[in-house]
Amino acid sequence: MRFIGDAEAVLDTHNYPATGEELIDEYGDAELDLPNGDETLGEAMSRLGDTTYQNSEDAKLAAMSAVSEDAIGRKGYSDRDAPAIGEDGPTQLSF
Q1: Mind listing the pLDDT tens digit for each residue in 15-55?
Q2: In which domain, by residue range, is 46 found?
Q3: 20, 30, 39, 90: which could join 6 in a potential S-S bond, CB 3.0 to 4.6 Å?
């Protein structure tokens, strides 16, 4: 997944190390355009707790890992894999 909108550019230009709180205060309104909707960088990063990022790559990867389910296609869909450990899913059929 790649950021679309202003979020990637603003994270690339920031001076690091930086805390998540600093990034939210500075760039929280930057838009993340997701496949099934939009959210802000602040909304995504607020899910991460108190973290310090050493560089823009760390911050971008963390934000990407915290986006809402609007960033995925069909929730829970897989035509190949069994559910992960601890997940419930459809009963597999063999044809």
Answers
A1: 999 999 999 999 999 988 777 778 899 999 999 988 999 99
A2: 7-70
A3: 30
